[in-house]
UniProtKB/TrEMBL annotation:
Stretches assigned to the FAD-dependent oxidoreductase 2 FAD-binding domain: 7-470
UniProt protein name: FMN-binding domain-containing protein
UniProt keyword annotations, A-Z: FAD, Flavoprotein, Oxidoreductase
Pfam families: FAD_binding_2 (PF00890)
Keyword Transmembrane helix: no
The organism's taxonomic lineage, starting at the top: Bacteria, Bacillati, Bacillota, Bacilli, Lactobacillales
Amino acid sequence: MENAAYDVIVVGAANAGGFAAGAAAEKGAKVLVIDKKANSEYLYRNTIASVDSHAQQRAGVKIDKRELVEFLSAFAQDNVDQQLLWTWVNHSGEALDWLEEKVLKPNGDHLYATGDAYYETLMNKAFPSGNEITADEKAWDWGWGKYVIATDQALGVEFQYNTKLEHLLTDAQNRVIGVQVEDTETHAVREITAKQGVILCTGGYGANEALMQKWAPTLLKKNTYTQSPRDDGSGQVAALEVGAARDLEPASIIFDRGAVPVGTNIDDYYVKDWQSHQFVLGSYPLLKVNLRGERFFNESAPYQFAMNSLMHQPGHLEVMVWNAKTMDNLKQFHTLGCSRLGWPGIFSTDGEKKLLQDYLDKGYVQQADSIAELATKMHLPVDQLTKTVAHYNDLCDAGKDTDFGKEAYRLFPVDEGPYYAVTLGGILLATLDGLHVNSQMQVLDQHEAPIAGLYAAGNCAGGFFWGAYPDRVPGLTASHAVTFGRLAGQCVVDA
Ligand SMILES: Cc1cc2nc3c(=O)[nH]c(=O)nc-3n(C[C@H](O)[C@H](O)[C@H](O)COP(=O)(O)OP(=O)(O)OC[C@H]3O[C@@H](n4cnc5c(N)ncnc54)[C@H](O)[C@@H]3O)c2cc1C
């Protein structure tokens, strides 16, 4: 056993972990961060939510805290811990200000607050919570994770990569006193102790199909891809071994843009690759039909709702149908986040056209001169798709979606060729249900009492989300990770 040179061990070197380590080190702790992989910089995300960050104050963005907490509680039907929601609302600004002042500005970056999150229906109520990491307000800085790690190192934090947590070490009173780890290259096993505590920041479990079957079987049906291939749930399993409690119902963040080959059976299609076939245009509220060729929902709904709706449709996949004319009118759909046209998105009309050509070349998107030909290529009933498209065009002409209530500005006819179609399923970004924690980020046991010495933050911690992710509060998962990571680092030292 390595003797207790460390006060705090943080497991996981990405979003929550990087912030936890820096916060503990700032308070004078000797901190070790371990990560099972060889790197973690690229996992740091670019849109991070907050309430009242300095960047938001500069931009004049104001969010009513109570309204936001009520929205999040209602969104989750109160299957969450409201104390955690308030803790996030009250601390997210401070976490983002630390990021901007201590990490980004010394490296030429800053935060840019996005203020244009609004929608006009109840289904699409949105909050301007996003802060984007940028140097020039023309593009994201994808590489900022290295600045967090360098800032932590300057504070004295030590990083050991290729070092995987296998089990937690406890004393006779079940206090967590360290970790048993395996070197992922040599497979050597060793034990490392920590005087003050261990913070789990190990993310979700979406790449572990056995855990998915146990904790969230419907997610295997809703998703065709997972973009977090290293999420094996091992941190949560280690906590369960020492008596931790975890959420009983699943929560997740899903994108509705996983392009799959025509004829895919979702029951045996689950690809674990961060470079999955993400067809960004799939998140545009264009005409979408089920595998019978029928329209079945309001395409303006949050990303994840589409995948939920599909659980009531045959084959659990949708087909998006549009035409070449649509490609020159993408701006009018006013999508947010990474499907947005122009900064702070990454797409332009030319970029989307290039993507379309790429997916045509790969065979995921099919092109035809008539709807009947398109239906045949997509294995859809010709008569039904022809009828659906004609009726949709009538709704567009009338400017009113009397079937499902999509906003008038998002009704665009599919009335002349060339026509396109693509089959879409969900992309799981991360699972969000996890270990029970209190507002000090202490992991709780089956009696909701803290397990001494054990903390958790980020996607391995629960109580904050339930069911679908509220994507109209942009950046909330990354902010949940960094805000609570920072709090965990402070609380473990203060305990
Ligand atoms: C492509 C993509 C883009 C995204 N973009 C955004 C965005 O812009 N805004 C947003 O809000 N959310 C975004 N998300 C979601 C967001 O990344 C996560 O919800 C959140 O940031 C996760 O942070 P985390 O620290 O909990 O986990 P992670 O970032 O997943 O980090 C977990 C770390 O723990 C390590 N680890 C796991 N198990 C062990 C073990 N046993 N031993 C040692 N190390 C271990 C892993 O290797 C990993 O480095 C995105 C997700 C994806 C997939």
